[in-house]
Amino acid sequence: xxxxxxxGLVQAAFHDPELLVLDEPTDGVDPLGRAEIRRLxxxxxxxxxxxxxxxxxxxxxxxxxxxxxxxxxxxxxxEGSVRELCxxxxxxxxxxxxxxxxxxxxxxxxxxxxxxxxxxSYRVLAATAxxxxxxxxxxxxxxxxxxELHPEAKDLEAVLQEAVLP
Length: 166
Prior knowledge:
The chain is α+β, with helices and mostly antiparallel strands. The protein folds into two domains: 3-65, no CATH class; 88-151, Alpha-Beta Plaits. The protein is 42% helix and 25% strand. It has a four-stranded antiparallel β-sheet with strand order 6-7-5-8, with helices on one face. Strands 1-2 form a two-stranded parallel sheet. The model has no long low-confidence stretch (mean pLDDT 87).
């Protein structure tokens, strides 16, 4: 990690302030240094400090922040938690083993709310973890092997573009 950034962060946190204002804390820092900075900032959050972070490194912002505000022209144009901004609203993408499901399995998947997508994945809606689990149990009972599952969400870059581009 860039020693100067670490020293500055330690100095800023030395007296356990309630608020830390940070401008691009991980910019220009190698991957291990970024992880160390995230760890240190996580410790500050754990003790109850509020962090106000300015960053153009959106993937870092997603990893470190509870709430995000997107500024354009000096005004807040979007604000919320990462989930609110990027959200998946209970939408999931599932991918099954390489061999395509049989017609019967595809029919059963459809009956349980799995919608086939152009890229070979399936989209499924589930409001709770229990509902998602029940749908996955039904998919396995239909004879398919789940190999990938992830929430369907946009990244902050897409949210930023939507917020500031016409």
